[in-house]
Write a sequence for this structure.
């Protein structure tokens, strides 16, 4: 059984979707949700779904390898970032090299990098007058949003769309595609 840890900092709609998608899956399960925010809605969503949760602080994440030890103790084989806003330290990237994915709510390499998350991304896309946006699933390396791209899906934008409308359209793509893309990525490596 492959065991996923989802890292998430906020609402957790993607995390919930992923947990539901793999419920009852023969080879893959979501074992753990890790968050850096005590009040993140994702923790409640995970608990209601019966998934283990773990709250981490900055020191544990950056100054020790405690989290890695816990991931290994729980048999985690893949890590998925779903709205996780801290840069992942190298010890974790090395431990999960080729087995760590992130989702970004735009068509990378555009509109990525430090500070580009959530509604800020959609505001930037709107301000630039783009005619399309979308989602990118990519492997994680030591730079924000720069690892190998494994999947993109696109949506058209209308001149009348505001950042919130764009956010909703992009999130719909995330909920549709992220879990099956994770499944394919993991299955290809079995
Ligand atoms: C998602 O739209 C994800 O693409 C984005 O955060 C949102 C989390 O939503 N990630 C980034 O912007 C990373 N740079 P959710 O908490 O409802 O899943």
């Amino acid at each position: 059984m492959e065991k996923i840890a989802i890292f998430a900092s906020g609402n957790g709609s993607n995390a919930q979707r992923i947990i539901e998608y793999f419920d009852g899956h023969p080879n893959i399960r979501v074992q753990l949700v890790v968050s850096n925010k005590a009040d993140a809605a994702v923790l409640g969503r995970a608990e209601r779904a019966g998934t283990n949760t773990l709250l981490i602080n900055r020191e544990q994440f950056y100054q020790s390898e405690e989290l890695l030890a816990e991931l290994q103790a729980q048999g985690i084989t893949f890590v998925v970032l779903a709205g996780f806003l801290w840069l992942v330290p190298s010890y974790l990237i090395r431990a999960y090299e080729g087995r760590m994915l992130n989702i970004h709510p735009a068509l990378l390499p555009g509109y990525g990098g430090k500070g580009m998350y959530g509604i800020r991304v959609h505001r930037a896309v709107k301000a630039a007058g783009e005619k399309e946006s979308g989602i990118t699933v990519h492997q994680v390396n030591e730079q924000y949003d720069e690892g190998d791209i494994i999947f993109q899906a696109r949506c058209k934008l209308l001149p009348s769309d505001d950042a919130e409308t764009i956010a909703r359209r992009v999130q719909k793509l995330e909920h549709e595609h992220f879990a099956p893309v994770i499944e394919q990525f993991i299955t290809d490596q079995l």
